[in-house]
Amino acid sequence: MRVVGPNLGPVRRSLRPGRLIFHVPGRVNLIGEHIDYAGLAVLPMAVDRTLRIEATPRNDSRICATSTAGFERREFEWTPQIPPFASGDWGNYVKAAAQAIGDHWGVQRGIDMAVDSNIPSAAGLSSSSALLTGVTLALLSAAGIETTFEELMQILPDGEHYVGTRGGGMDHAACLAGQPGAAVLVEFNPVSATPIPLPGDWAFLVAHSLHRAEKSGAAREQYNNRSRAARAALAGSVSSPEEANALQHIRSEAARVQHAIAAIRGGDVPAFATVLNESHRSLRDVLQVSCPQADEVVEACLRAGALGARITGAGFGGYVLAFCLRNQLAGIMAEIERDYYSQQPARAEFGEYLMQVQPSAGALI
Ligand code: GLA
Known about the structure:
Radius of gyration: 20 Å
Strand content: 15-25%
Shape: globular
Number of strands: 13
Order of helices and strands: EHEEEEHEHEHHEEEHHHHEEHE
Bound molecules: alpha-D-galactopyranose
Distance between the termini: 10 Å
């Protein structure tokens, strides 16, 4: 996939000269959880919640970022080694993009940017990877650097490492290469993104566990432990219960990705639902990345008639993904609301705690 400029022709024409706009979607992972960092194939989809960046190139090498989400303005000089802000600061995703580009292409011109997003944060829909990806595209574009999907997939995980996450490349691949109406089969070594069209009568919703999973907080340590254990186990040294669990989860989850693809291609609803339910059991009992609140929401979704449900994303809170047929969706959402959320006053703090998510276009499409 060749990205020119990156991909800004139509956008540029509609704007004042020099001003660039990027839309980067969030993603939900359908199946293949906690295995991308082991280099195994995963099946996310880009969703209809988007981060928007409006950027104006500068004539110096300062980077200034504002956000409509109530985060404070951040500004810094783009140097070869950029010292991070305090841990957990949103500006570190901006710095991460600049550092990753600087390492690969050298320091470039700065930009002024305004970030706006309706991707719920700290919830498993990849709001932070969308920010990293969007800033990367904006900086590259301002510098006139042409790149490719493959090259972006090399540098974006480095950006995650800058903020301290030892993750894989699933999120970036999904938010770059998502396709309307399709999931994306993301494979690594070599990296590729293949659309897998979803049956038109299938529907997905996400239901919040009402427990935040801050990727920059305690959940990050837990996440990094799982990814360390997986890498060690795959390298052939299973020397702790954590590594044995990681290996067991990885093997079964990798097989579920293949089963899910076969189910999608065959329109096999029960088989796809089974894959989701088995994935949740493995994430909860074997890898132990769920939490009681998410387990309750999975049960609430199934009680309401969802065919399959599981915690999605890094885990430890955030959203649960549920699957049903399109004609069941409204009834199921109403039932989840009545049976579960109406008794959870904390829901008021979580914005769109229950919503449909639709397979959508990625930033490069
Ligand atoms: C986070 C990471 C991804 C992936 C998931 C778990 O979202 O950013 O790379 O590892 O967790 O599947």
